[in-house]
Amino acid sequence: MVRCPIEVLQAEFKSSEHVRDLFVSYSETLLSQVQQTVACNALHSTEERMCRWLLMMHDRAEGEALPYTHDFLAHILGANRKSVTVAAQALQRAGLISYRRGTIQVLDRIGLEKASCECYAIVKERFDAFLTPPSTAVQGNTKGRGKTSDT
After folding, report:
1. How far does Cα 129 stand from its chain's mean position?
2. What whole-number distance in Å separates Cα of residue 23 and Cα of residue 25?
């Protein structure tokens, strides 16, 4: 986790158009995720929503194991526990996940992506675009680092 004093952040925000643009872009990206999640919750099955959520958490996790109970997933997905259990059983039978006592293991990420609704790909694409440095960013500049071909 990165932290900085709020006064420093406020000063940078006031003085840097680039920092303001980053904050606006992040806010728009986060809002688009919230809007997509609302639509997803209204339109897609518990199983599809569970796949989406597991993929999002898998993207952020270190390793394949995700420490989630069915009760927790039911709360996060806005579903009842029985629906989550049925969805988890279907995903396990399909060989996409395994679960045991509050731990879900992703076994087939590509299969999980196929079983998910399109909402995962839409949100991921938006966040990937946000995290990709703009073409104006300096990349690959090694001047001053070791020997160059003209020395």
Report:
1. 12
2. 5
How would you list the strands of the sheet with 103-106, edge to edge?
Answer: 65-66, 103-106, 97-100
Say if CB 47 and CB 90 are below 8 A apart: yes
Distance CA 119, CA 117 (A): 5
pLDDT the model gives residue 138: 56
In which residue ranges of the chain is pLDDT below 70?
Answer: 136-151
- In 3D space, the residue among 67, 29, 55 whose CA is nearest the CA of residue 115 turns out to be 55
Structure confidence at residue 139 (pLDDT): 55
Cβ–Cβ under 8 Å, residues 77 and 50:
yes
Pairing of strands 65-66, 97-100: unpaired
| pLDDT of 62 | 81
Q: pLDDT at position 71, please?
A: 94
pTM for this predicted structure = 0.78
Closest listed residue to residue 22, CA positions, set 133, 135, 139:
133
3-state secondary structure of 45: coil
CATH fold of 7-130, please? Arc Repressor Mutant, subunit A (1.10.10)
What letter represents residue 122's amino acid? I
